């Protein structure tokens, strides 16, 4: 029984001690130093060798301007332990009292201790860093490393140079360190990213890029090409990253992994031009079937997106050849889904598209492959205006993959399907639930649909304009741009001046783009900019106008001006990143800025 009571007493004491520590920290965080002081005094008394409690108690005294108490405590602790870190604390206590001579005297004693015993270097250097005494910390590491060749503080000293504003020196030292310690490359890159995040003027990135380019030119070591490729990817300059990856491959043709990864990044970031160049390069240099299939899939998908009806027979023959080569099996499931999409949305062949997908559903697919097939089946049913069947498949995906990004996509498409079938209240409810979706694109689409329904329900209880818009929107979904354009133009006449106008102008512009009438598209985007300045389509109108001037009308100055407006005036836009990238390319990176 005695042992049990002893254990219980010890256990309760631990709980009480922990509670006091949490309470003291809470008071300290709120700046209630008087309340925190009494608790830390008790904790320090119970654990006099705990340096953390000593530091906290000293900070409380300093917060209360009781510098004499702080000094007395530190001198007492110093006498008992003889640890030179107390010199740093004593110096900082003097500095708070604006006695810099006394502070410098203590700091010198701390650094002298390192000169005599280099093993103290890390401990004292960290103490200086905690007080933001950067030059003293740097001197400490430098002396410690000089007096003990087994110590290496290059990493800490490089970061301190950066914090002191010597960014060029930091870059050189960090790159030297990472090259000498390859396993530390990721840590170095993570630190560089932190500096890039605060690099509003792009000065640091340019300095880093310049240094890496010099190193790739001076040496044939692929390490620097890999590092430069990483920087270009970080800056979303994927075409430049590809140049580096090609250089690496020519000198080390054993693996395609990094090039394939870069291609996938380009696909995800919708840099189709660079992705296409990468996949073509891959096809020329690999015999791996899986890699070839992935490359062919993307190239065919990209070709479809830019094809005209007269190209469809050739595309179909490519599908036939590839499916014959790779077989109709789970191995080629993505290719078969793409083939069915092409049949439905481009060849208007619903029956054969559905038949191909039904055949796929009978194969031994994993849960994500089945979800892909169901998503396409649902899309094909929407295309054929069989909305209820489509909703069933979208719902199955939600049940099969709850809380998954694919499930959120299915939910968004279900909301859009409800909109097509003119069930506006249900579509609005679904869109509202998706406004906080983790994927920005889905969230943006949900907000757009929600506002479209809300704004046009308030002034039109019969929702006549929404019904007309829904019909035109479905034609656009069915890849019928001419019919969709006519329907949207009728809305502009029939519902002129109503809330539906801004969204309709945007749709008219997009469909003119699909039909290759870029001048007309720009004129409708300009109407949005002139007459609907407070609407939700401003960033779209700016961005797509810029894209047309940049990529179709060869007017880079006009494009640059519009991209700049997206960046400066719409930082939350989903087009922000691409607009900034295009702006920088048009600017030629010859000046600093956004």
From TrEMBL:
<feature type="signal peptide">
    <location>
        <begin position="1"/>
        <end position="18"/>
    </location>
</feature>
<protein>
    <submittedName>
        <fullName>Tetratricopeptide repeat protein</fullName>
    </submittedName>
</protein>
<feature type="repeat" description="TPR">
    <location>
        <begin position="502"/>
        <end position="535"/>
    </location>
</feature>
<dbReference type="Pfam" id="PF13174">
    <property type="entry name" value="TPR_6"/>
</dbReference>
<dbReference type="InterPro" id="IPR019734">
    <property type="entry name" value="TPR_rpt"/>
</dbReference>
<keyword id="KW-0802">TPR repeat</keyword>
<dbReference type="InterPro" id="IPR011990">
    <property type="entry name" value="TPR-like_helical_dom_sf"/>
</dbReference>
<keyword id="KW-0732">Signal</keyword>
């Amino acid at each position: 029984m005695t042992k049990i009571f002893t254990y219980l007493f010890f256990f309760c004491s631990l709980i009480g001690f922990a509670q006091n520590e949490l309470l003291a920290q809470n008071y300290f965080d709120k700046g209630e130093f008087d309340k925190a002081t009494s608790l830390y005094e008790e904790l320090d008394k119970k654990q006099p060798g705990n340096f953390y409690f000593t530091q906290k108690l000293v900070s409380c005294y300093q917060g209360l301007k009781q510098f004499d108490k702080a000094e007395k405590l530190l001198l007492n602790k110093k006498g008992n332990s003889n640890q030179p870190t107390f010199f740093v604390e004593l110096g900082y206590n003097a500095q708070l009292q604006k006695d810099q001579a006394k502070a410098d005297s203590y700091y010198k004693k701390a650094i002298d201790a390192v000169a005599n015993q280099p093993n103290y270097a890390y401990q004292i250097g960290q103490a200086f860093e905690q007080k933001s005494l950067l030059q003293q910390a740097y001197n400490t590491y430098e002396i410690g490393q000089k007096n003990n060749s087994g110590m290496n503080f290059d990493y800490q000293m490089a970061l301190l140079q950066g914090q002191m504003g010597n960014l060029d020196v930091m870059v050189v030292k960090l790159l030297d360190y990472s090259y000498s310690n390859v396993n530390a490359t990721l840590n170095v890159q993570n630190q560089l990213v932190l500096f890039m995040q605060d690099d509003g003027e792009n000065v640091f990135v340019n300095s880093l890029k310049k240094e890496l380019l010099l190193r790739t030119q001076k040496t044939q070591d692929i390490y620097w090409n890999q590092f430069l490729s990483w920087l270009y990817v970080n800056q979303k300059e994927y075409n430049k990253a590809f140049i580096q990856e090609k250089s690496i491959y020519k000198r080390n043709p054993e693996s395609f992994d990094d090039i394939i990864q870069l291609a996938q990044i380009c696909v995800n970031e919708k840099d189709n031009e660079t992705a296409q160049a990468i996949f073509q390069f891959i096809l020329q240099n690999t015999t791996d079937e899986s890699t070839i299939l992935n490359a062919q899939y993307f190239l065919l998908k990209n070709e479809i997106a830019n094809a005209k009806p007269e190209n469809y027979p050739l595309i179909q023959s490519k599908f036939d050849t590839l499916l014959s080569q790779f077989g109709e099996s789970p191995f080629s499931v993505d290719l078969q889904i793409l083939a069915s999409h092409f049949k439905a949305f481009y060849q208007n062949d619903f029956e054969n598209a559905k038949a191909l997908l039904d055949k796929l559903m009978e194969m031994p697919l994993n849960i994500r492959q089945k979800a892909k097939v169901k998503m396409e089946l649902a899309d094909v049913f929407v295309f054929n205006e069989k909305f209820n069947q489509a909703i069933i498949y979208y719902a199955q995906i939600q049940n099969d993959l709850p809380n998954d990004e694919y499930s959120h996509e299915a939910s968004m498409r279900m909301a859009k399907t409800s909109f097509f079938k003119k069930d506006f209240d249900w579509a609005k409810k679904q869109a509202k639930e998706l406004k906080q979706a983790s994927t920005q694109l889905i969230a943006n689409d949900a907000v757009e649909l929600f506002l479209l329904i809300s704004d046009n329900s308030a002034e039109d209880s019969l929702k006549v304009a929404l019904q007309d818009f829904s019909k035109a929107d479905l034609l656009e979904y069915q890849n019928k741009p001419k019919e969709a354009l006519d329907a949207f133009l009728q809305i502009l006449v029939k519902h002129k001046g109503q809330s539906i106008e801004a969204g309709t102008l945007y749709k008219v512009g997009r469909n003119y783009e699909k039909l290759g009438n870029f001048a007309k598209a720009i004129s409708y985007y300009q109407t949005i900019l002139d007459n609907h300045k407070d609407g939700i389509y401003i960033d779209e109108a700016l961005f797509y106008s810029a894209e047309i001037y940049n990529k179709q009308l060869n007017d880079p100055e006009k494009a640059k001006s519009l991209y700049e407006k997206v960046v400066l005036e719409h930082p939350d836009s989903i087009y922000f990143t691409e607009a900034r990238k295009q702006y920088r390319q048009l600017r030629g990176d010859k000046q600093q800025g956004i």
